[in-house]
């Protein structure tokens, strides 16, 4: 399958490398890593085994890649206003688009430009960080749940999941993409938010009773908002407890938003906080803890007036 | 009146200087500023007019001061475990003790050591910062509301207020000290907390709608908790709005907890957050926004495990 990776950060490089190793024709749209990867290939340091791709098809502009069968979008959600510029040149009549971005609103943004029928979304429970240019570090986990924006496109979602599984990626198609998105938010909202604001790792947060309680309180609000959205089935009663257990296993992990803040990038506050808060408010679900965290993050990163 | 100032930070130096200028025999327990003040006196830069006290009675140890008529406590609340060491040598049979510290629990801590009858508390709506040693900057406001821990000691509270007023300090005795304490918390909890956590000034917080809403949401929870405590009368319905207006007038003010964090000191989290949260919980008042802010502050300043 001919696959373009748009947004070749930690997530895009890692999954793209696995897809290429699995026999697909993968084309990476690169920016920071272009020179390093064209010179020395792409090196993956992974808890599942390190490997090196000596020859990688890297490009600086999407027009050089041309039409592909599948576009995998791994952009930061704060550059979604560049979808047209970065994705349109890759899209032909039968091209499918899979966004693995964080938060809510990504599929809708793509659908507005390319029509809803070809849009798929996935949530990746992946711990990975970029290394120096030409390197990516996979620290653990990596499961993808993906689904179609339009329910009648389940067969295509299954097909994409099969391609990913064939490349060794733990991937399942789900019938309710919105549910998967909200499940991921149950993790993203507390841990991206707390860690970005306080400069503490996941392990730091969970090392105190007050930190754990803070995470659980936030999770409870996200679950209540999720279960007011008319999902195919509610999030399970023990979902927060399972997320805490999963998170405790991550150790001193630094979530992406924490790294974004440390490196002076914008934060994905719209996709991870503002839109979920709107969706909760539309259903009358109070989310005071999430609103407080979001308000503090907004102040912390605001350009001083 | 012979007055000892214990905790000669921005608040203690400012009020102490006014009390001395007003003709009282003021004795300062000094630490950081001792050498500078003994050599060059104390210089007050104030919106009410600058002045310089050439001769100041400064001491390094409370035993050198001896018994006084009134002890004014301006310590950071996180050193309240040093009350016995720092205050006891100043206390004779008729000595009164006035704590102008932030938060809840201070009067009770003093009463446990020195008996409740002599304990008075005050809340200071003061904007002041320390300058270089030997200097203090009064940036605005300065009103004190003070009251007795024991309601039958109202006459003594009136007497202390008169001493303060005679020194040019805007000071009133109030019959319900707890109400004054909670009123101050309506300011301290949002602004000390938000500014310490985000590194933004009061003006920054109020410059955006989301920052103002965050402050108002926190204030609403503190007011609800206050009004569940059986105060002599409830906080007025427009109290939060008046606090926002007052705060907007402060400009780019840096609350004490923000400065404490920047300078690597502990934060007054127990007095300003933990005890008020406990008092709210005891009355069944939910305070999710305040709890979130307190939890984040606790993580932000925790010593990394």
From TrEMBL, chains A, B:
Domain Ketopantoate reductase C-terminal span(s) in chain numbering: 176-297
Keyword Magnesium part of the UniProt annotation: no
InterPro entries in alphabetical order: 6-PGluconate_DH-like_C_sf, 6PGD_dom2, ApbA, KPA_reductase, KPR-Related, KPR_N, NAD(P)-bd_dom_sf
Annotated ranges, domain Ketopantoate reductase N-terminal: 3-148
Keyword tRNA-binding attached: no
Protein EC: 1.1.1.169
Catalytic reaction annotation: (R)-pantoate + NADP(+) = 2-dehydropantoate + NADPH + H(+)
Cited function: Catalyzes the NADPH-dependent reduction of ketopantoate into pantoic acid.
Family indicated by similarity: Belongs to the ketopantoate reductase family.
Protein name: 2-dehydropantoate 2-reductase
Source organism per UniProt: Geobacter pickeringii
């Amino acid at each position: 399958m001919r696959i373009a990776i748009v947004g070749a950060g930690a997530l895009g490089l890692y999954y793209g490398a696995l897809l290429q190793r699995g026999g697909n024709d993968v084309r990476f749209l690169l920016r920071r890593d272009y020179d390093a990867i064209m010179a020395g290939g792409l090196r993956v340091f992974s808890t599942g085994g390190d490997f090196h791709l000596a020859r990688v098809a890297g490009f600086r502009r999407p027009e050089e890649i041309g039409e592909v069968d599948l576009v995998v979008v791994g952009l930061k959600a704060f550059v979604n206003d560049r979808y047209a510029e970065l994705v349109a040149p890759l899209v032909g009549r039968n091209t499918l688009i899979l966004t693995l971005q964080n938060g809510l609103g990504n599929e809708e943004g793509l659908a507005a430009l390319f029509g809803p029928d070809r849009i798929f979304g996935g949530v990746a429970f992946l711990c990975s960080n970029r290394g120096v240019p030409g390197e990516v570090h996979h620290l653990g986990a990596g499961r993808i749940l993906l689904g179609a924006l339009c329910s009648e496109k389940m067969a295509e979602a299954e097909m994409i999941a099969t391609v990913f599984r064939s490349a060794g990626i733990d991937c399942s198609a789900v019938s309710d993409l919105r549910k998967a998105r909200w499940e991921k938010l149950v993790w993203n909202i507390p841990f991206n938010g707390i860690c970005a604001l306080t400069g503490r790792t996941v392990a730091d947060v969970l090392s105190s009773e007050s930190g754990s309680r803070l995470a659980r309180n936030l999770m409870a609000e996200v679950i209540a908002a999720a279960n007011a959205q008319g999902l195919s089935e509610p999030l399970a009663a023990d979902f927060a407890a399972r997320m805490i257990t999963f998170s405790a296993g991550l150790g001193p992990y630094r979530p992406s938003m924490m790294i974004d803040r440390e490196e002076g990038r914008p934060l994905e506050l719209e996709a991870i906080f503002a839109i979920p808060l709107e969706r909760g408010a539309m259903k009358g679900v109070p989310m005071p803890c999430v609103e407080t965290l979001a308000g503090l993050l907004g102040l912390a990163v605001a350009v001083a007036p």
